[in-house]
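REQUEST FORM: STRUCTURE PREDICTION
Request ID: SP-0412
Submitted by: Lab K.M.
Chain count: 1
Length (residues): 134
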Amino acid sequence: MTDRKTASTITDTELDQLYAELAALRAVARGYCPHCGRGDAAPTVEDWEQERQSAGFWFDQHKRARQSAADQRQRAKRAEAAITRVRDLHREEYGLCDECTGSHGVPWPCPTIQALDQPAPATAATRATDASNP
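STATUS: Completed
RESULT:
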């Protein structure tokens, strides 16, 4: 068992020395809170700067992702409008394609409309699109 000083056996000099040691430890303790005694109450300047940079990085990533999503929506709208224009040009007239028919008849549906009516290619399964991925 260690010899522990009690309030009645400690000298003023020893008490002052203990307070000096405690103050020195508090000075080097990272983010020491004198009210609750926790040593992790506040980040260091380096930790704060690192978190600020990380937050800035993720803010920029989010901004780029939102812009990319907006760009993709605009691209999809333009593609749908182009498909509508092509379908308006290539319409059926008496069993033939009105746009493709020149001196010889091109049966409906013409190759252009057939290409537009093809099913979309299957998307490659990835972790992001795999429905079984939790």
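NOTES: Residues 45-89 form the longest helix (45 residues).
Reviewed by: T.R.
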